[in-house]
């Protein structure tokens, strides 16, 4: 005679209740995320309730726009530089291949802070002198603001790192797909544009997004050029009021908030891409 299922088996076979589903979802929440949420709520409470911290936040807040603008424009330019440099690294043309490799190794061999100074005070003036010497225009060095020089410096720096990401993404595409494109009558440019690049960009999209998060943090280095981002405004506030604790606690929370939000968006993007692959 067939025995009735045990209570343990019945618990396993029975559908989970609504409370158990909520508990399971809550258990999947990473503890580091909970910790960051608690830190953020505590920081907001301090800024709202403490007058000194509220004053520091209101002073530093205008620099958020500058930080975001510099990060977005620099990253857009670095994507273009990185794509062309990555294609150059894969090119069979000796000149373009060596030029791309020279650019990448030059940037990777110099610390970012030193490179920002070099581009702002050496590279940009040299380019302007060359343009004026060739008679193309009559540019004034002072006409190029420090904010624009900071954008160029970040774009050139990150372009070298993105070049390696693009190169790895392109190499991840099987050569058989390129041969199939040739069999359909496409030339090399068309195969790269319509077949290889769309798949390569999809493969490296999470890495590109992570580099944007890193650029938002590294944009604080442009404060050495007196660009009024949130780091520079925090330094000005601390120097004028001697409230160093309020200034740097506030700016730390502001950077943490931006990077955590962007990191969560990157994770969401990765999950959507993984879900799309399993369909």
Question: In words, what does this structure look like?
Answer:
By secondary structure, the protein is mainly alpha-helical. The chain has a single domain, classed as MetI-like fold (Orthogonal Bundle). Helices cover 80% and strands 0% of the residues. It is built from twelve helices and no strands. It has helices at 7-13, 18-27, 31-49, 51-60, 63-90, 94-108, 112-133, 146-171, 175-183, 188-218, 230-241, 244-278. The radius of gyration is 26 Å and the shape is flat.
Annotate the secondary structure layout.
Layout: H1 7-13, H2 18-27, H3 31-49, H4 51-60, H5 63-90, H6 94-108, H7 112-133, H8 146-171, H9 175-183, H10 188-218, H11 230-241, H12 244-278
Helix pairs in contact: 3-4, 3-12, 4-12, 5-6, 5-8, 5-11, 6-8, 7-8, 8-10, 9-10, 10-12, 11-12
What key attributes describe this structure?
279 residues; mainly alpha; MetI-like fold; 0% strand
The CATH superfamily turns out to be MetI-like
Q: What's the helix count?
A: 12
Helix proportion range:
over 70%
Taken as a percent bin, the fraction of beta residues is under 5%
Give the N-terminus to C-terminus distance in angstroms: 44 Å
Based on secondary structure, the structural category is mainly alpha
In total, the number of strands is: 0
The CATH topology comes to MetI-like fold
Form type:
flat
Mean pLDDT: 85
Unreliable spans are 5-14
State the order of secondary-structure elements, H for helix, E for strand: HHHHHHHHHHHH
CATH class: Mainly Alpha
| CATH architectural name | Orthogonal Bundle
Radius of gyration: 26 Å
How many structural domains can be distinguished in the coordinates?
Answer: 1
Describe the largest sheet: none
């Amino acid at each position: 005679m067939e025995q009735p299922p045990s209570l343990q088996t019945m618990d396993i076979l029975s559908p989970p209740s609504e409370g158990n589903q909520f508990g399971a979802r809550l258990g999947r929440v990473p503890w580091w995320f909970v910790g960051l949420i608690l830190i953020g709520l505590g920081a907001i409470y301090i800024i709202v309730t403490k007058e000194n911290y509220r004053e520091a936040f209101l002073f530093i807040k205008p620099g958020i726009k500058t930080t975001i603008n510099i990060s977005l424009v620099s990253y857009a330019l670095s994507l273009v530089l990185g794509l062309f440099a990555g294609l150059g690294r894969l090119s069979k043309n000796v000149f373009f291949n060596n030029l791309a490799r020279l650019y990448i190794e030059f940037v990777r061999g110099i610390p970012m802070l030193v490179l920002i100074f070099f581009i702002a005070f050496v590279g940009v003036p040299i380019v302007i002198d060359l343009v004026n010497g060739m008679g193309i225009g009559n540019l004034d060095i002072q006409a190029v603001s420090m904010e624009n020089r900071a954008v160029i410096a970040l774009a050139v720096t990150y372009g070298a790192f993105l070049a390696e990401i693009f190169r790895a993404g392109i190499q991840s595409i099987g050569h058989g797909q390129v041969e199939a494109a040739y069999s359909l009558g496409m030339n090399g440019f068309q195969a790269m544009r319509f077949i290889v690049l769309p798949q390569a960009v999809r493969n490296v999209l999470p890495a590109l997004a992570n580099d944007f998060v890193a650029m938002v943090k590294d944009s604080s280095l442009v404060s050495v050029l007196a660009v009024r981002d949130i780091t520079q405004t925090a330094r000005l506030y601390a120097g004028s009021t001697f409230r160093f604790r309020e200034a740097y606690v506030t700016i730390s929370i502001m950077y943490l908030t931006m990077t955590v939000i962007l990191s969560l968006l990157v994770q969401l993007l990765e999950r959507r891409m993984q879900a799309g692959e399993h369909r």
